[in-house]
Structures
1.
Amino acid sequence: MTGLIAQRVKVPRILGALGIVGGITLFYYRIFTVNNVTVALSYLLAVLAVSTGWGVIEGLVASVASMLCFNFFFIPPIGTFTIADPQNWVALFAFVVTAVIASHLSASARKQAQESSQRQHEMEQLYTLSRNLLLLEVHGPLAQETANLIAKAFDVQGVAFYDRTSDRVHRAGPHDIPVDAAKLRDTALQATVFHDSATRTTVIPISLGGQPIGSLAIQGSQVSDTALHAIGNLTAITLERAHSQDVATRAEAAKQSEELKSTMLDALAHEFKTPLTPIKAAVTSMLTDTDMSPAHQELLRIIDEETDRLNLMLTEAIQMSRIEAGQLQLHRSAQSMSKIVNAQLEKLGESLDDRKITVDVPEKLPRVSVDPEFIGIVIWQLLSNALRYTPPGSPITIRAVAEETELIVSVEDVGPGISEKEQRKIFEKFYRGKDQREIIPGTGMGLTIAREIVRAHHGRIWVESEPGKGARFSFSVPRTQRES
Amino acid sequence: MTSARVLVVDDEPQIRRVMRATLVAKGYMVSTARNGEEALDKVREERFDLVLLDINMPGMGGMETCRIIRSQSDIPIVILSIRNAEKEKVEALDAGADDYVTKPFSMPELLARIRAALRRAPNTSAGTADLLNLGPTEINFAARRVTVAGEEVRLTPKEFDLLRYFASNPDVAIPHTKLLQAVWGPDYGEEVEYLRVFINQLRKKIEPDPSHPAFLLTEPWVGYRLNLPKE
């Protein structure tokens, strides 16, 4: 169809070219007689004008016609096409060369102008596209919107956009583009450009930082390769923006749900403590009655001890939930480790009665900037673990030494020890020693709580143990340069 | 032996029941209130020797109730709370509480704390004058009255006892533990934050410039010292 249009455009021009040549011939042959050089120059001007203005075909027609007319009407023998003089071959050659060169020059100039105006148009389109992509709402159907925007900005017949993350193809534009999902997937993976001139379809891969993230097919456009790649890059950036926002949103949601869980746990633990309070009060009140039979006293003691155990579990659950919700707020001040250790030993009270406890925590140790309440919890955890996991009557040693940059506190027992494999796990939440799980009560949170508290103090916590040879749990807190 | 009147304020009926049963068995006279508003009504109507106050209650909470009771009376207040963070203890003491017990508590411990709160340091101690002048502040130990520049200032019993202990041991550094045991009772000694709060309150009441105390001085790492003005 376009060929026909071109012909229709060309026929009047060719007739026009012939008309001009005819006009010149008529003018010099009938009206105004001049010498042959002037005639030849006039023909040359005509050929130049026609080929510059209309193109090479018209120029050639004009040059052949000029040569024929010049030969027939002006060169002797006049009235024949015989070329007697070799000079006339030169004239014909001049006409043809002029026609070809002039038309070529003007055509390429025209083409350049056309190209540069197309480039400018493309730049405008790209600008519009990038602006619209930037304004896109990232939480909406982004990939589809991107395809729509490309189709709209470049006024193409069809766009197909393949998003590798969701493995979906988004189509846009007035025509359904004849490219299937498999082709788009292949292009994305192989990172090669595919061009089908029959359907005037181009498929380009889209990647970001070397990672294929999709592909884009465009049909029926005069979009240059440069513009196509620019579109590809813009799309990549848009998708990446959406993905990173998505990741951030998900992380925020996960954090919020973690906080909610912690708040729930905290509330629940407090709720459970409420009924524990009258139970504890009642049972301890009854235990003060010395007239009771030993059997009843023993039963009451069991209630009392189990109440304490339940309370401890709830306390640990509350501490854990606080730590996990990131609410561990330290109130640091220069503290004497000896004081903190003694306070915890006092707290453990009667449960230490049958143990030989060696305390080697000199009062002269340098003070450390810690939160005494929380470091107290760490020491309490380590001590009560040693008490729980070692045979009754076995000795426990608590020691503190000042190193150059830190203060190290350790609790050592002569219990069954911990295998190397378990040593790696015991600080994890809810992990309970394999052999102890069923025998010794606990929540599996104690060491996790201790670890988090020590970490918040920028210290370390670790265990050294050999099965059968006891265990030594240690933690460190940094020494302050100069306490204020 | 005791017939002190105790007001138990708690929204949990079971706690009120167990407290009533135990305290009555120990010879106390017990009244109960379910929330802060009811407690304030009862305190206005009757005279109590001690208030046991829960913190977390619907309506007016324990903190606010404590503040209001303290603004009207110097009755000893013991807070009972599930929360055991130091921050909350200090907040309760700042609100005027005399002591803070964490739930769940053992009854013998609570009874000891109740006795400590009811206990008044003996009124006469050798070597203490009845009158003490600290700059513009005049303390009359016999009448339990304090005036600053002629204006009467109300001290709670614990604040007053603390001040009197200082007055009987002037110009020496008194360790935290010793102060706590002398004023609260033999079961105390670790509650350094109590001292911090009470000393601050005393400073606000009797020092001309509480942020730069001239009389109640901190002895770093040791305790506190009463600095008598030199004549």
2.
Amino acid sequence: MNDIKDFLKEERNQEWRVELKKSMKAKERTGRVRGHMPEADPKTRNKNSQEVNLGLELQQAVSEAGRCLDCVNPTCIDGCPVGINIPKFIKQIEARDFNGAATTLKETNALPAVCGRVCPQEKQCEATCFYSVSLKKDPVAIGHLERFAADYERDSGNMSVPVVGKPNGIKIAIIGSGPAGLACAGDMAKSGYDVTVFEALHEFGGVLKYGIPEFRLPNEIVDVEIDIMKKMGVKFRKNYIIGKTLTFDDLREQGFKAFFVGSGAGNPSFMNIPGENYNNIFSSNEYLTRVNLMNAANNEFDTPVISGKYVAVIGGGNTAMDSVRTAKRLGAERAMIIYRRSMEEMPARVEEVKHAIEEEIEIMNLHNPVEYFADEKGRVNKMRVQKMMLGEPDSSGRRRPIPIENSEFDIEVDTVIVSVGVSPNPLIPSVLPDLKISKWGTIEVNPETMQSSVDDIFAGGDIVRGGATVILALGDGRLAAAGMHKYVSEKVKVN
Amino acid sequence: MYKILEKEIFSENVIKLVIEAPEISRSRKPGHFVIVRIDEKGERIPLTIAGADEKKGTITLIIQRVGVTTCKLTDLKPGDYIRDVAGPLGKATHIEKVGTVLCAGGGVGVAPLLPIVEGFKKVGNHIVTVIAARSKDRVILEEQMRQNSDEVIIMTDDGSYGNKGLVTHGMEEVIKREKVDMSVIIGPAVMMKFASQLTKKYNIPTVASLNTIMVDGTGMCGACRCSVDGKTRFVCVDGPEFDAHSVDFDEMLQRLGAYKEKELEAYLKYLKIRPLDE
């Protein structure tokens, strides 16, 4: 820990940082108001797939970076799951070294353009920013600045391809091309390994492609990152369901020396209430996959999607917000969130809730569905909801929702999207009897190396955590790469 | 890209394609299916593998023309490519020696039934197979079924071939005359519903292979969910085979109709733009 502190101190004391700090009085810095992210007009954007956040203008970014006090004790870093050197990249923006800022971000975060868009910064770095903690002011817009630096580098056309180590000829298999897998693949390629990423679907990017909608994370941003990895020599194979198309033994026979499983938490949960299997009741995964991965809203594509007029989305997480906002964009007159707790307990990013409300999404807090009804063709036409109140905090620390008796009433709906959580994809655990699995179906790993109970198999992301965030998956992927590198170096003789 | 090597037209609506997919041909077992996507704009549809030739590295799909995707797929010719074929998916059929196995296939359901019949025969079961079709020209794989069964009974709705009657008539005849230890039924949901009711009446353990709507086929979307013994299960990862007596076939029928209007609309549009020489 002291090593890191010393390192940060040393960096902070570099001449350019000292000069920059001196160039403006702290009072002037703290006197600035947090820059506002330019956004697409809510009345227009809720009818198309345009990205909502437009990105900070260059001047705005430089000015926002000037708010950062380059603290002696940068507590923001403590809030970052991957420990990005936040003051350094922000000061590089202030000094107008934008590509340098992107490089700093990439030292610890494989996908800054993605994280700048989807990280819950208000619960992480921005929550521990000096402004939030001590000044009780709006924190430095760390997330917006992260996105700015990454976008600047991409738009400059000068995106650097990370330096790849001398090829060592050792084959490594990455299973799943979501954030965890991509992070692990990138690091292993940098260390000179012969890396192949196997993906079950027909597109690469995992949840970044099938889950997160275009208006929040354009696919192009993910594709650019994958192209960079291809340039680093990483091989990508689609339509491979490892454990089925090829088994782990098949891959071992083909010379693969270690595996990283990042197969995600793809299994949608349902509530098991009466009528839940009526038509036009979907999991958020199905709804979002149809629209995002299969392009179902575009008439030129063959996959259909139901564009309901009265759409209820059950749940209060980011996926629920993505689903309800997608439904609005597909033409819903009424698009509602039905969530059993209050606004404060909502797990969704604050920004997503704000954007949703601007887009005329209705939010019904403290309501829970108890039953669905259908027309003669089996299509849902009504849902019965029950009012809830909050009791004592439960194991998650959030106040427990308690049903209020005799408070049920009916709401007219023609589409319901159930977004109450996901569980780990059971496919890989089911084909590896020796793999130690928790009672939640997640793969058990050594938290320092991400190594599983099967020596040559490492794992990370949602298959280990249940349902977590992109940034945690990226962190896991990197940690696993380090663990894997150590394992392979010790176990495999390099000729 | 997956190359089509052979094409055989069984009937106006049922076509066999042999596709180059070496890894799937090696790893597939009876009961497995693949997800197919024809081109960049195509949808993902599940198709049960009807056979494989490991040496040639091919799998066989037998496809009924029911909508846009199946029509586009069966309009392809040898030498053409399919963009995506992913698999094998689902749980393989649990095959063991039980004695007499009554295998019943309705319509194109006879195709996925064939590898299961082969599997049960190989381990020494006595196999009686009932093939049911609307009429003579829709009876498929009779020869292959005869090679792998001890007896084959053919039922047609109109009596144009074999015996006149439904699949259940043929099945009941067998059940009445000999002890049946197990039954496997594959076909349209309605056929499986009634075949299942029949074997339940006689307390014969029965497995049905469900063909529900799917998107990813790997347990991710839940489009394929069905109620088995009152619990929601995913056909793609928990199935496709289930204890037939526990399956809620009425719910399955309802769910299969989820996109009926959209499918019809797309089909009519497709017929208009379809090349005339096809």
